[in-house]
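Board notes (copied after class):
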Amino acid sequence: MKLLRRYFRLVPLSAALGLVFAAPVRAENLLELYESARAYDATWQSAKAQYDANLFRAEQAKAGILPSANLGAGVTRSNFESIRPPAADRNFTSQTATVSASQPLYRPANFATWEQGKRQVDLAQAQLTAASQDLIIRVSQAYFDVLAAQDTLAFVQAQKTAVGEQLASAKRNFEVGTSTITDTREAQARHDLVVAQEIAAENDLRVKKLALDALVGKPDVKPNPLIVPVNVPGPQPADVNVWVQQGEENSPSVQQAKTAVEIAQLETEKAKAGHKPTLDLTASYNLTRNPNGSPTIPVPTRNNTGSIGVSFNLPLFAGFATQNRIRETLSLEEKAQADLEGTRRAVAQATRTAFFGVVSGQGQVKALEAAEASSQSALDANRLGYQVGVRINIDVLNSQSQLFQTKRDLAQARYNVLLGQLKLRQANGTLVPEDLARLNALVTK
């Protein structure tokens, strides 16, 4: 948890605005885009502001164990009128000033509140860590979405070119009488379908790029593509139980649930303090001045009074409010324990799911790489067969579609594995910005 503290400094608003309106020097790798998103993303800024507010709220709890001091002053004017002889009618002014101070010596509830404040700091840190990890995933998802959309458009355009060549060949063969009009119409239908797919792919890329731009606060961001073929290592360590154990120690969700249990336990201590006495050290100094005297003392007077002592209070009976408050806090403590156990199970399940998802994704990548090679061989064979007359045009078109579909699936599978590794680290709470730096080694410069 402490490792992430240095990443949580808030970038000033002026810097964020500067990033938006600056000259078009655009970060293109994952780590740079993440840093840009931290300075611009409204969700992150909200989480950081909440973190700061929680820190200041926790500091307020310390006031209950620190001394307090007050200064009071006042002026009063009174009129004295006597109807008995000798008659008198006089005005008197009284000026007072008091300084008082108090230091808690034994207040169990106040000390429990102070301990709760410390736990609130840990809770705020865990919440900000979760927000940081969520931002890493959102930036990575948007980054790979753009790359996947670019690949899809490139594959569709390549397929369009290939289908166009096949359409031209079918037309030539029909003109010379070596094929039927059916081949031409099949190629035309496939060409029209690919054109529609190209339009959809262009729009999808446009939408994905807008989403990435909106996340990082930069226009027309161009993410660096992957170096293909990419060799993504499997989860290290390769034991899923180790990842689950790390989640127990590092997951922000588990940390928040643990802290909530500690806060609930301290709340019970506060409730029990309702039966305990309190002891305070008090001191005061009072100055009273009567410049015109008083009805009883006709001459000017000045009185200085100082005092110091202890104040003791022992609760005797509060209408069973304290007993019922203790019962309430014990029930809430039990609830917090149940929530912690539920969180542990959820984190363990999410970690296992993410781990096996990465392992499965790597297997899928290898299978699709083999399928790509097989599809390419099948296409080459069908083209040769079409040229010598043992295959028809639809066979070539189907082989082309299969090849480019496999290429799209392979590219998407690679992105899913990379993103899956980040999600695995998010699931067990070990995801840090340095993980993005390691992914940068897999993209072109």
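Comment from the instructor: Residues 108-175 form the longest helix (68 residues). The chain has a mean pLDDT of 87.
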